[in-house]
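Fold this: N-acetylglutamate synthase, GNAT family
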Amino acid sequence: MILRKALIDDRDDINKISEVTWEGHDYLKNIFDKWINEKDSDFSVLEKDGKVIGTIKLTYLQNREYWLEGLRIHPDYQGRGYAKYLTKEYLKKIKNLDFDLVSMATFYTSKSVDIVKKYGFYLLNSLKIYRINEKKEINDIKNYEVVENYNDVMFILDSEQLKVRKGYFTFDWTAINASAELIKKLVDRKEVYVKKIEGKIVSLIILSKMYNKEGIMSISFIWGENHFDEALDFAISKYNDVYRPGSEFLYMCEDDEQLRNILVKKGFEEASKEKNDFVIYGVRSPEEIKNI
């Protein structure tokens, strides 16, 4: 059994793992080329008898913050401790890093939750998953403009909407602590949009492809509760522009009955009936990592 760096020649084995994970809806096969070429990450495979049977990845995000993802074991080899082995080996590496946060996110039923909890990870936040996977007709799209000056939108760092989310922006299945550095990056990428009335910002939405596993944007954050409907209409219209069959448009947000009613009315589906099914676990120092 060998734990080693992922190589381009591993594509076929990794695709086979992806095709039998999450009932065939796994993103790994779509993100393989990007992950192989990323510089700020450590993407590895577990090889047994010349065959790749598992994967794992650690990514540097920002500000001494790392993201653990891509933990997969082929179903034929599950239940033998390989997922625990991969996690433990990576946490040995992580324990030697100088970090303020290492975290991961998954669906609430995933077995990886029990694995990381064993090594000291604890719940940082949980959100509700909403998704659209087909074009939706939008009749009245309000004008939103791309933000050019990041200073114009730094106020969202102190907003109540962000506090409710415990400070997280979400990018598909990746969750990152909101920061001035991150907002600057999003503005530079032209992924922050605002609606103004008489020159004053009344609504803001972040639609980003950053860290997206399907190559399609996701809703990272919405500010301006009185204009939530309009922001969603604008977001759906942008998704319609880049839609392709099989893609998912995701929004992770707090569980709120009023928000749920609006989202469902707009055509979003709940990923489950669970109150919060997108769970984020992590540790904030090497000392919090246990049992390795």
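The first strand starts at residue 2 and ends at 5. The chain has two domains: 2-99, 130-278.
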